[in-house]
Amino acid sequence: MPQDPVHREETDLAVKPRTKTQRPPMYKVLLLNDDFTPMEFVVHVLERLFAMTHAQAMEIMLTVHRKGIAVVGVFSHEVAETKVAQVMELARRQQHPLQCTMEKE
Ligand code: TYC
Known about the structure:
This protein is of the alpha+beta class. The chain has a domain at 35-104: CATH 3.30.1390.10. It is built from 3 helices and 3 strands; from the N terminus they run βααβαβ. It is elongated, with a radius of gyration of 23 Å. It starts with 26 loop residues before the first strand and ends with a strand. Bound molecules: L-tyrosinamide. L-tyrosinamide binds next to β1, α1 and α2.
């Protein structure tokens, strides 16, 4: 008799499963404008690290160039951290001042 609390079998749940599903927080990866990083380099970075087409990469790069900042993508904390580190490393290697950061959604 699984419904009788006295004779409840050991396999029955002792607590109700919670109804609210917990989703992990997501993070925006942001690219910042500067006056020195070449446009082609930014496009290359977006194609290579964010799997964008040339047209998509151009669009994001031009948005950053005109507005100062743009969201490149939204990822889990771990993936966002990795993307930011990869962008910063590519920029550092080429000695470009390109800045990339992340922000909780
Ligand atoms: N403003 C840069 C230029 O005129 C281009 C640029 C675009 C730099 C986007 C950074 O995130 C950036 N060469």
